[in-house]
Design brief:
- An 8-stranded parallel sheet has the order 1-2-3-4-5-6-7-8.
- It has one domain: Metal-dependent hydrolases (TIM Barrel, Alpha-Beta Barrel), CATH 3.20.20.
- The protein starts with a strand and ends with a helix.
- It has helices at 13-16, 19-28, 41-53, 76-83, 106-123, 135-145, 161-169, 187-192, 229-240, 244-259; strands at 3-8, 31-36, 58-62, 89-98, 127-132, 152-154, 173-176, 201-203.
- The longest helix is centred in the middle third of the chain and has 18 residues, at 106-123.
- With 261 residues, the protein is α/β, with parallel strands linked by helices.
- Helix content is 41%, strand content 16%.
Length: 261
């Protein structure tokens, strides 16, 4: 079995201190490659540097997370444009809208998201998207630009059936995390995952966040790791009524095509 974790926050200090160990343990369970998530200029630079250290195992995204939208200035787009030409950078993001915490003003988030949609349109790089409690505005912007854009993945999807079908209508890919392993918060997602076509489904841990609640042996640190991706795969396979090897092959094919790996 071979898997690619499409969303790992390896630049987070909880993970960056043990890169070699994390990659070795992931590879030991079949998670051979990871997509490092860039969330700001600083963390996007760090992601590229990590990819340069481990070019066979790591690829990355570069972008400005809605939490960091307030840091956008006149030079940000130019630097992002330069970054995405790096061979390790396979998508623009993490970008989108987050009206749950509002760490950046909403109007600023919208403008910064629009700027990155334009950058994705001009570069034809795939998009790696975040959305929380902002679906209507998020969807409206996405629909406005959809005809100009290439591939899109809704990272860490946790929304309802209407939102899922709306995104699938726009030919978006869907990223599923360990949220689906949560017997409380994940119930709706557990019922919805059967509707995601194999050529639109990808898997991610979002490590170090979203540790699956039903792991047989949870780490005392409560830190999620890429090595737990097979557990998420097993859960999705059960809910879709598929064998684990079949789902693993489907997800790998979809992921390789999306990220050009």
């Amino acid at each position: 079995m071979r898997l690619i974790d499409i969303g790992v926050n390896l630049t987070n200090k909880r993970l960056s201190v043990d890169l070699e160990g994390i990659l070795e343990r992931a590879a030991a369970v079949g998670v051979n490659q990871l997509i490092v998530t860039g969330t700001s200029l600083e963390h996007s630079r760090m992601a590229i540097a990590q990819c340069e250290r481990f070019p066979d195992q790591l690829f990355c995204t570069c972008g400005i997370h809605p939490h960091d939208a307030k840091e956008w200035n006149a030079e940000t787009r130019a630097e992002l444009e330069s970054m995405i030409s790096h061979p390790s950078v396979r998508a623009i993001g993490e970008t989108g809208l987050d009206f749950n915490r509002d760490f950046s003003p909403r109007e600023t988030q919208i403008e910064v998201f629009r700027q990155q949609l334009e950058l994705a349109a001009s570069s034809q790089k795939p998009l790696f998207l975040h959305q929380r409690d902002a679906f209507d505005t998020f969807y409206s912007l996405l629909k406005e630009y959809r005809g100009q854009l290439g591939d899109i993945v809704a990272h860490c999807f946790t929304d309802d059936k209407d939102s899922l079908f709306a995104l699938l209508e726009l030919n978006c890919h869907i990223g599923i995390t360990g949220w689906i392993c949560d017997e409380r918060r994940g119930r709706e997602l557990q019922a919805l995952v059967k509707y995601i076509p194999p050529d639109r489904l990808m898997l991610e841990t979002d490590a170090p966040y979203l540790l699956p609640r039903d792991l047989p042996q949870k780490p005392s640190s409560k830190t999620n790791l890429p090595e737990y991706l097979p557990h998420i795969l097993q859960t999705v396979a059960r809910l879709q009524g598929k064998s684990i090897p079949l789902l693993a092959d489907e997800v790998l094919t979809t992921t390789q095509r999306f990220f050009r790996i």
